Amino acid sequence: MFLYVLVRTSTENAGVFVTKSRNLWLAGGQSKFSSSLHFNRPAPFDREMSNSTEETQQPFSTLNNTNLIGETARISHGSFKGYIGNVKDSASTTRKVEPHAKRQSITVNRMVWV
Prior knowledge:
mainly beta; four-stranded antiparallel beta sheet; two-stranded antiparallel sheet; SH3 type barrels; 1 helix
């Protein structure tokens, strides 16, 4: 997919240029990945959660891998750095991600994605 981008500081071609969408990065605004980065953890000083006991809260290390299937993830390291895609399969050490830019599944280490 190609995008037309307006750069107000450029005078060449009236500041408009064309680029592939995967070459761009969101700068400013609200990202749709902000909720998935926190794994839906409550705020530390939230009054509703402060009264709960430790037995009722699920530890971070036992997070169920099936909760991640279908979520959108961004790869942060390796040759596919910056790619955004859907999680298709999740194991204890690897994740299978289908990037939006490519219609193929790639397997990445679970520490490489955000």
